[in-house]
Write a structure and sequence with these properties.
With about 230 residues, the chain is mostly helical. The protein has helices spanning about 1-15, 20-45, 65-70, 80-85, 85-90, 100-125, 130-140, 145-185, 185-215, 220-225, and strands at about 45, 50-55. The longest helix has about 40 residues, at about 145-185.
């Protein structure tokens, strides 16, 4: 619905100010094209007259559900395989001095490198070992920080999901425990007398209030004047 409103607004401006829109479009279009070209240069490499995408998400049209989940969820590859490839993509790091959180992010980024290379090998089987090495080198330069940011978002999203699930289970467990407690026979034996006492106390208080109101003398203003 919001998109339709936006589309209608765009059509209105095109109809109302055609000259202004055309002038701005001619000014902005080259800038947008330059930005797209720079982005595409970071996400691809030209080899043997072909464009090879090094951004794994640009292959999403070829993904099935399992492949998409395999790519997006960290922890799909073994820890030993990731540890063996740490120096391959992060030769400048000493992993013994990394904090636990930072090491987890770097390991997940290494996993993204390995997954991307596997996708490229699958969708471009014609590439030889030398060409795959060129792909790997450009990925190590241009995609390292991008993979780390993606991993951080994925971890944050997973943490939020786990927190929501934990809170939901806690609420369900609390409600279930109360229901089980109220269903016990001993609970009935303890609660019913207490409930009866509360009801009787309320009834007695209400009765005493009615009695006090009925015993209170009532004099009209004329009667009070005559008594004086």
């Amino acid at each position: 619905m919001c998109f339709l409103k936006f589309l209608g607004l765009v059509k209105f401006f095109f109809a109302r100010y055609p000259g202004l829109i055309a002038k701005n479009f001619l000014t902005v279009a080259p800038l947008v094209e330059d930005q797209l070209n720079r982005r595409l240069q970071k996400d691809s490499i030209h080899l043997a007259g072909k464009v090879i995408y090094i951004n794994p998400f640009l292959y999403w049209r070829r993904f099935d559900t399992n492949t998409d989940r395999w790519l997006r969820e960290p922890g799909q590859l073994g820890e030993e395989q990731i540890a063996l490839n740490r120096g391959r993509f992060y030769p400048e790091l000493d992993w013994n001095y990394l904090e636990e959180d930072e090491r987890a992010i770097k390991d997940a980024a290494v996993e993204m490198f390995l997954k991307t290379l596997e996708l490229i090998s699958t969708y471009h089987p014609e590439l030889n070992s030398g060409q795959l090495l060129e792909v790997e080198r450009k990925m190590a330069v241009t995609k390292k920080r991008a993979f780390e940011r993606w991993v951080e978002k994925s971890f944050r999203r997973r943490f939020n999901e786990l927190s929501r699930e934990k809170n939901r289970f806690a609420r369900e467990r609390f409600v279930r425990s109360w229901r089980e407690w109220l269903a016990l026979e001993t609970t009935h034996q303890a609660v019913l007398p207490l409930f009866a006492v509360v009801v009787m106390s309320g009834f007695l208080g209400w009765s005493m209030g009615i009695s006090n109101n009925s015993c209170t003398p009532f004099f009209s203003s004329s009667d009070q004047t005559s008594l004086r």
